[in-house]
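Question (not urgent): is this output format expected?
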Amino acid sequence: MGYRVIQWATGKLGTQAVAGIVGHPELELVGAWVHSEDKDGRDVGELCGLEPLGVQATRDKDALLELPADCVSYMIARTWATDPAESVGEIARILRSGKNVVNAAWPALLYPKGLDADVYEQLQAACIEGGSSLYTSGIDPGFGSTALALTALSATREVRCVHTYEIGNYTGWKNTAMVTLMGFGQPDIEQCAILRPGMTAGIFASSLRLWADAMGVVLDDIVEEN
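Got this back:
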């Protein structure tokens, strides 16, 4: 039995997701949400550099959630850095509709219990109400820095210190986030969002708390140093 999938956003991540969905013999793309007006009503294949797929993109979230789909492929990286509450609320709404969610745009949800506020409780309640599930993957922080560290810890008898590093070559990544988030090319350090208090912790705090819980320790604090 195949699975009917709705793609949520067709940006850098979403474009790759659509190609993966279309190329998988057990998945069927049945709808797609887009943010921009110029994408509304256009064929999803055209938007993603593929042959026409016969599926029109739409900005109508209500119409999409009424479709008899099994899963939503959630790929909005735009809001999790600027308004996490909006992303959580949107994911919760999808879950309450009875659709499972696969998320790669906000890898911090790999461990919702490690986030501040009531993120876990809100998502858990939405899953129970909709009879749905949430699965998060990704590498930033995701499995690259989180799951692999846990694997190494599981083979260690005594833990004295844990170090992880993120090293990436963004030379060929033409994305506005390099300016708006990372601050490259900005003359004023205040324009570098990643250096704002709480930003780095917001991305990696869930990983730290996951490791702490796995080791049975309680973190006194999370300190950012730029």
